[in-house]
Amino acid sequence: MCSQSILPSNRNLNILGDIFLLRWMKKSTIVEIIASLLILLFLYTAISKSFQIANTLYVLDKTPILSRFSETIAWTIVSAEYVLSVLLFIPRTRKFGLYGSLILLVFFTIYIGYMMAFIPKLPCSCGGVISQMTWRQHLVFNICFILLALVGILLARRQAK
Description:
- By secondary structure, the chain is mostly helical.
- It has helices at 10-24, 27-51, 53-61, 70-89, 94-118, 135-160.
């Protein structure tokens, strides 16, 4: 007699149940979860940068192509993060917030690629725990959030149809 059961284990049932739940979860719920994650990210970094703006200015001043506009860039980014958080929070403007998030995250990712290629020793100016990441970790982190924003946009567009 075989000692292995042909029935799935409880652990496998939990994983299958989670996949099944995600498959049938309302698109609007998934979009809300994605928007919430983006709000947390942007509010966290905006608040951190607001209180440590000197660090952000220092890093931007050391970046050759951005140094001339460091103060404008720093405050524009902080403002954009606050505005995107509000847009993502309001259901009527959430789709605009998702598109804006995608654009901002793509710009951040291009900046990270630039920093990795030309100034890898310079610290990140993101603020808080995120600034402790290496450039490579930050790149992966941003790509994950870009994918989340894309999924949010696609689901929001399908939901509108």
